[in-house]
Amino acid sequence: MQRYSTVFFDADQTLFDFHAAEHLALCQVMKDYHLPVTEETIGFYVDTNRGLWKLFDQGGITQKELGIERFSRLLEHVGANRNQGAEMNAAYELALGQHGILLPGALELCRRLAPLCRLFILTNGMTRSQTGRLERSAIKEYIEKMYISQAIGCQKPMKAFFDYVFDDLQLTKEQLPSAVMVGDSLNSDIQGGIHAGIDTIWYHPSGNESPAPLTPTWEARSLEEIGRIILGE
């Protein structure tokens, strides 16, 4: 028997291949700004960006500050003018929005679920890049709406983010048991779903164990397995 009729997907590394899109956009922008495109500089940016997103998830930095700071630090790292950080970030967001690359199996999952479920995306990404990627992806026709933290003004895992989504969709308390949050991040997706009072599916193809006290309702190592859980197969 089908378990869920409303599915909230995370975007990056759940449906979209963010790492592939990030690499393409980053290389393009670094070339445009005449920065050295090397494994070292790319690695520096990726590590810096990952650390700033963790800080953002914890409420320690705003999304606007995050975008500027990641490129300010990169520019400073290579000896360039860090004051170009805001300008470079805007160029990067635009470039990232050009790449709607999906993870293998994401299209098939959405195509399978769409006739039976309402599908939404809940993301902490930047508005310009996330909307651009969805528009250019093959899953666009299956996603009813995308909710983006930058547009809402708060982020996963904050309960306020989910309250906004539930209010917008007019989901009642009685309907929440039929809703599920699917994502790869324990800190934002799973913790957020738990705080919001809905079931969760932790997508972790690596097979890592969930650390206490975060306990997702379900765990899945493949997108195909996510589909089986949702449909009760």
Structure description:
With 233 residues, this protein is of the alpha/beta class. The protein has 10 helices and 6 strands, in the order βαααααβαβααβαββα. The chain has helices spanning 18-32, 39-57, 63-77, 85-96, 106-113, 127-135, 149-152, 159-169, 186-196, 223-231, and strands at 6-9, 118-123, 145-148, 179-183, 199-203, 218-220. α1 (18-32) crosses α4. It starts with 5 loop residues before the first strand and ends with a helix.
Sum this structure up briefly.
With 233 residues, the protein is an alpha/beta fold. It has helices spanning 18-32, 39-57, 63-77, 85-96, 106-113, 127-135, 149-152, 159-169, 186-196, 223-231, and strands at residues 6-9, 118-123, 145-148, 179-183, 199-203, 218-220. 48% of the residues lie in helices and 12% in strands.
Contiguous low-pLDDT stretches (5 residues minimum) are none
Radius of gyration of CA atoms, rounded to a whole number = 18 Å
Strand residue percentage:
5-15%
Q: What characterizes the major β-sheet?
A: 6 strands, parallel
Which strands sit side by side, in order, in the main sheet? 3-2-1-4-5-6
Structural class: alpha/beta
Helix content: 40-55%
Q: Report the principal-axis shape.
A: globular
What's the total helix number? 10
Overview features:
about 10% strand; about 50% helix; 6-stranded parallel β-sheet; about 230 residues; alpha/beta; 6 strands
